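Ticket #4471: structure output looks truncated?

Reporter: J.K.
Steps to reproduce: submitted the chain below (159 residues) through the standard prediction queue, then opened the result file.
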Amino acid sequence: MFSPFNTLAPYILTALIKRPKRLVYLSSGLHRSGDATLKDLLWEHRPWQGQQAYADTKLHDVLLAFAVVRRWPDVLSNALEPGWVATKMGGPGAPDDLDAAHRTQVWLATSEDRAARVTGEYFYHMRVRPPNPATRDLERQARLLDACKQFSGVDLPTD
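Returned output as attached by the reporter:
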């Protein structure tokens, strides 16, 4: 099943909000193992695998962040991974600092630091980190936007 929480919700919220100055999309390091083919988004032809579905949607979040850069050049749009933190999902053995997890989000959303006033980047602990190379593919970004529009009936406006 296509996850409305991790793919469609950010897409719909982005499409329907008053255009902000900055957008920050929450992804995960697992996006690197997401299926970049964008085939079978509804999981109708492949056996369900929860972790793979999660990784796929986190890849979608980065694709969305980077697609917004092209659609809305006046908006700073970035994605980040908060780290593997000890939550119910992350488990008690997760190695990252829970207190540090939110700092990059706040920094990207509010800071006037030059390093935070960029667009089309992927961050981890307030530093640029290379994302899955597929997220830079413009045609793949457009295909995701088309799929989200088809599933939701909501169009992401252009500039």
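Triage note (M.O.): checked the attachment and the full token line is present. The CA atoms of residues 70 and 140 lie 13 Å apart.
Status: closed, working as intended.
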